[in-house]
Design a protein that fits this description.
Blueprint (H helix, E strand, L loop, with lengths): L1 H26 L16 E2 L23 E3 L8 E8 L7 E9 L4 E2 L14 E2 L19 E11 L11 H8 L3 E12 L1
Keywords: Protein kinase inhibitor
Protein name: YbhB/YbcL family Raf kinase inhibitor-like protein
Organism: Tunturiibacter psychrotolerans
Length: 190
């Protein structure tokens, strides 16, 4: 009796471990494509951040508007930009913002970018993990410090994606088109 119970418990633990592994593999962020140009220069910055901290105005505890982001001139051949913002400390790299087909002559996304599918300049915004278009501010569990990565991608083409594209779809579409990337990480805690 004890042996069969121990066998059952061991089997149950194995099933739980396998199911957890499958779930994490299905929900974890896809790997980013690799830049085609080694050591390409691209720098992302924000005048909205307080050093490496996100002020509450840009979170669920404030107005939840997007921070201002600006970047330097991209590598030659850049035809568009994309930006994806994720929570690096969430189990599944929760996606807060998906922006793509930003025109190649732009050097910023202004503070308070409208939360709509398409901006007047042709920039597209996909769905975040709140199931909304545009920016969804950080909202970590109480007393938890989370780090948020804003990653800008310089691409050699525009991305052919549906209007409600996800971060996973955008990253998949970037494969073979990424010239350079730049990352800005800032934290927020409640």
């Amino acid at each position: 009796m004890r042996r069969s119970r121990a066998f059952f418990l061991t089997g149950a633990l194995v099933v739980v471990a396998l199911a957890t592994g499958v779930f994490l593999a299905m929900t974890r962020s896809p790997k980013e494509p690799q830049p085609r140009i080694a050591n390409a220069s691209l720098h992302l910055a924000s005048s909205s951040l307080d050093g490496d901290t996100i002020p509450s105005n840009f979170t669920c505890d404030g107005a939840e508007i997007s921070p201002a982001l600006s970047w330097t001139s991209p590598p030659e051949g850049t035809q568009s930009f994309a930006l994806i913002a994720t929570d690096r400390d969430s189990l599944v790299h929760f996606v807060h913002w998906v922006v793509y087909n930003i025109p190649s002559d732009k050097r910023e996304l202004p503070e308070g970018t409208p939360k709509q599918e398409r901006l007047p300049d042709g920039t597209d915004q996909g769905k975040n993990n709140f199931d909304n278009f545009g920016y969804g501010g950080p909202c970590p569990p109480m007393k938890a410090i989370h780090h948020y990565a804003f990653v800008l991608y310089a691409l050699d083409s525009k991305l052919s994606l549906p209007p409600d594209a996800t971060a996973k779809q955008a990253l998949q579409a970037m494969i073979g088109h990424l010239l350079a990337r730049s990352e800005l990480v800032a934290s927020y805690h409640r």
